[in-house]
Task: structure prediction
Amino acid sequence: MMHQTKAAHGAHTHRRGRAWFNQGQLMDSDHLDRERNTALLIRACWDTLPQEPRPDQLHGLCKLTWITVGTGGDAAADTTRSVVAPALSAILSVGLSAKNRDQLAQELQAQGVPTALARLATKNIGFVNFYNAYRNLSRGWIAEHQALITKLFRDASNMSADSDARSLYSAIEKMPPIQNRAAALPPVNLLSPVVACLDPRSRSPIINGRAGVRRNLRRLNLSRATLPEQFDGLVGLINQAGIADAFVLDCADKADLERALALPGTRPAHSNNTKGGGLPRPLSDRDTLEIETLRRTLTATQTRLHNKMTNALKVICAASQLRVAEATDPECKFDALIYGYRATERNLLVEAKSSDDPAVCRLAVGQLLDYRRLLPECAATDIAVLFPKQPRRHAQEFLRYVGVKMLWFGPNLDVIEGDVTFEPAET
Result:
């Protein structure tokens, strides 16, 4: 499903004028391959660039994500002449005039371009139908913001955590729009496809004015949200219902999205719900008799610490006027579910662990993934591990790698730090 960004605005449809779209389509079977091919090519090109790329080189990276659409609305399968050759000419500082992939292969070989990069360039490349009126304008806009765009792309290529990506999208939102005489285009339409391609984790979602992106945001109640909030919602779909990464998410149709949302939650057939119908209930104080079966092997000291952490979380959430619940379903016995954290409609599923040992962290991730899939609105739910203090390096690197948030208490268990903080409500 080709990106259609022939819009006077991007995913934030409430902020500027009316949107209109081309109807060209790529075959569904080609879409994911094209996105992955483009990502590999952009990463290979990025590695060839100097520390401070020229504006035309940065523009060339953006251009590699584009396709062309004919007058009949059909997407051109071979974009060598219109997109790939001109983009590579700028990126590699070589002269290319190829009209098809065979000619491009010959020209790249003659120019001494590495074989691996040349091979990538002759595959199906591009997936965004970027609006023609902004294609040339975007080059001048990039020149005006060269230093920041270079930093954004460099940060994307070194991405290690969702929190880093969220900060990057926040920086993009603050940039001025790409302006023509009639309307303005948000920079995320131009930049997020390249960010998605450069992210080595493939967890940076493409956010623009394509109908599918807007549909997903509407379904997540994020059409009018900020760009970082939209990032949270879309990245929350990854690793659910077969959505393995940002490119699979971009290819997902309405049915795929509904499977990821899984409303209501899907419980195993053998689940025996006898308490409250399995629905969460307000988080209560805990004692050692209420600890779940999984922790029966813990020492008494660890059990007391776990309960102390859970009770402290309840107090902090109350001070922040956040509704927090505990599980009642024995098949989904999570520690805490916080509703509407960060003042959004997203939820946060928390697993408290008294230790940051590797085995404990691995157990926590498995528990969170299994619990989340059983929850209503699972795709609107983020997951986090809560520790009594800042975890050590191994735990941090592991949790960032798997895309799970980290939380820890301050010295007196009266504040929570890490990827999410809770501010006391104003009085």
Residues 28-48 form the longest helix (21 residues). Residues 6 and 131 are 4 Å apart (CA to CA). The first strand starts at residue 3 and ends at 5.
